[in-house]
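Can't attach files on this board, so I'm pasting raw text. These are the components:
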Amino acid sequence: MRTSMRIGRRAALAGMAGAALAPAAQAQAPVTLRIFTGGQQRPDVMRRILDVFQERNPGIRAEVEVGGATSDQQQQYLNTVLASRDSALDVMLIDVIRPAQWAAARWAEPLDAYLGAERDAVMARYLPAYREANIVGGRVMALPYFADAQFLYFRRDLLAKHQVAPPKTWDELSAGAQKILAAEAATSPSLRGFATAGAPIEGTVCTFLVPLWGMGGALTDAQGKLALDQAQAQRALGLWADLRAKNVTPANLAEIATDRIRVDMQAGNLIFAMQWGYAWNRFQNDADSQVKDRIGVVPLPSFAGSAPATCVGGWQLAVSAFSRNKEAAVRLVRFLSSPEVSKMQAIAASHLPVFPEVYEDAAVLAANPWFRDARAVVLGARARPVTPRYAEVSEAIRTSMNGFLAGTRTADQALAEMTQRLTPVLR
Amino acid sequence: MARVRVGPLERAERRLGYALLAPALLLLATVVLYPIATLLWTSTQQLHLAQPWLEGFVGWENYARAMDDPRFWSSLGTTLIYVAVTVPGAILCGLGLALLANLPFRVKWPVRLGLLLPWALPLVFAGLIFRWFFEYEQGLVNAGLGLLGIEKQRWLSTPDLAFVATCAAIVWKSSSFVALVLLAGLQAIPASLYEAAAVDGASAWQRFRHVTLPMLRPAIVVALIFRTITAIQTFDIPYAMTGGGPGHSTETLAMYVHRTTIDVLDFGYGSALAALMFLLSLALTSLYIRQTRRDEGGG
Amino acid sequence: MPSFRKARALAALVIVANGVIPALWILLTSMKTETELMRVPITILPDTPTIANYVRVFVDQPMLTFLWNSLAVATLSTVLCVFVSALAAYAIVRLRVPMGTLILSGIVLVSMFPLISLMVPLFQIMRTVELLNTWPALILPYAVLSMPVCTLVLASFFQDIPQDLERAAEIDGCTRLGAMWHVVVPLAGPGIFTAAILAFVNAWDEFLLALTLSPRVPARTVPVGITLYQGEFAFPWPIISAALIVAIVPICLLIVVFQERVVGGLTAGGVKG
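---
Top answer:
Structure tokens for the assembled complex are below.
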């Protein structure tokens, strides 16, 4: 592992020196593909998968380039690379919310021609949400790598100790958290009740949407026009205000980013968390995990009388429109978006599969017992608005939401600000 | 100096002079003047890199949009408050450090290191370090408050406190530069002035008030100008500490420009914002320069 | 005078504490494990000091590449800047170019342009000429950024060199350029060195342009590299701290070795401006 990284670094240096002199010698075999991934999407696991690919395709080498860790930072980084029509990256792992934007900017190579006659058969195998997310305007812009959704993680040991059942509704969660916190206050003062993303990052968009959807509300109508019902949205925000008032969420919720939740829970400082699929693997396998075998995962709670909601997450593989090795890149993408790799990821990183049948695989279930119920959650998850101007949508929601969670904006003010900024974008 | 007729030797010298100036001027033209012209041109265009089909000349529209954009005004206000707080803050702290550093130390290098390190660190490093200081659960500041029996504060997610925290980082980082400039000013004050004042029976405060401060004036003006110019551009430290949050409460104009261009890829509007910022800094600096000129004329 | 000695020691303590404690705290943080960092109340000294974070700095991210890029960009931009500034300063001070002071003020005025205003068009220009994510994308602007201060420092040094020496060299048969090379350059050596240090530190520290014009890993510099460690992945504080220390130590060494020149340069460039 370590040697391969060192070689990678040397190759990067050599490549840079080469680029400085002349862009020569590109055509020579073997082909080297460069794939971009975020720090959170387990580049180490991808490296192992790529080793398998290289073994089977002796003419192709694949190198991983790791970019900023948040979805926003990655996009910021890719913006500068793609805006400069840089051909250095061949394949990019992008958030499920991006394909529309990429298609509009003409950064992704449409894959229909490469899939040819197989196109419909290939797409039919994926879970419907991912089939839809990757087809923009009738064209296949990317193929899914892994699925994701938000789940409720909880401390099985603490819930059992205080006879609290895994909550089905937000009220149960609030009551259970308060009960446990009260009982544990003396022995573990750093224990907190519940956390979700509150920092001004992409994840906070879901912190806004989950309760809104849970109440039966929507951000946009079928035409993608803003359709936010103020009263409903206010009640949705009321969920977070209430949890804060009852001291269930940490005082600094507005500073908390996705992986901070994982770190806190892993250190044994959280009872409940709204979190994506990847965290399970870290809780179970990290050397410093204090919560191995003490975590349970269930669907997110709902409001009494309505269905639970969750955000569609997940990561897609797009071929750069500026790549000089598109044929090889598509070959790699098709390998990475296969049931075989889906299974490898599920076992090594608890990444949720994009193929329905992989959820029933015995080895996958052995590593992730909670996957049994996860498929239904992923199937029921909802997508964030699809628009080429998603960057602006996300920005408006997360900053207003962050202001609200920090207590600098009342729910009214936050929603008014959000509406004012979303209206010209979502029309 | 009477102007003599330009002889062949002078002419040759002058030609050499122009030749030697040429590289510098060429570099300035390509890296500053041409880009500024590009900026002004782009600011009259609709140019959104993620929507390449929407391009064209729009005249003043981007500027009009800025006038109606509450976020432009709030980031402008934040920038000006940063200037108003961190410039005097850094000057005062820098003056204090300079006065202390002006004592005759026997071993100089530790003092020099302490004085120079904040100056030599990248701004983002200062931001990262102070972010860690002001962390909610693990920060040194909240731990210190705990010892005093004060409740933990949400430094980075309460607007006023986030502002205080970022200002602390900026002042810490920039007072080092100010101290160095003022220290040079202090060392240039002839000892005889102090001796004369002492003979007149002046107290320490009077000596400071009537000898040190007036003599230090030019150095203070220089420090003030440099500090103001950098304060208008405040970006790195809030970027590293709060990302502009909570909400937009610590977002400066520079951060808004960066977000509009690099995140959203709206280069037309972003260029208009950047051009406004350019005008703002031009206005502030010319104000200063005029002030200094007047001082020089009077003194 | 024991009271004076005490006051002096106290003054030294204040300065050193103010400058060094933040770095020291980061050093302590860098030697703790993530589990220890999550503990409440916090610990001051690491329980079981570890260097594992330092290993991860180099293994998880191509830190050596970042260091190499920073070193190369800073060095090359410094050479360019000092060369160009020295020629300009010499022309203004020694060759009586008409409107010399005006040109000097013009050069200084450049340092007042907000970087962010330059960043936006530079991004577009570098994009057109396909220089984004290469060293030249940073070297050219960095050379300009330090040009004002370098020109001022060098001008003040050139001014202090007695003109007679040059005249003497010219009488000995040197050309004007020859005189500059053989007489002025050696005498202005300390000035050139000072200017070089200032330009180097400016380039080494720059963040905004590095973040926008050259963010790709193979061309990324240290400040950007370390800042982008953070993420939705919260903040891997132990690793960031270790990376900060790796980047701060060379700066400390530079300061301790070249302190006189840095102080001299800042004051020459600052006060005369």
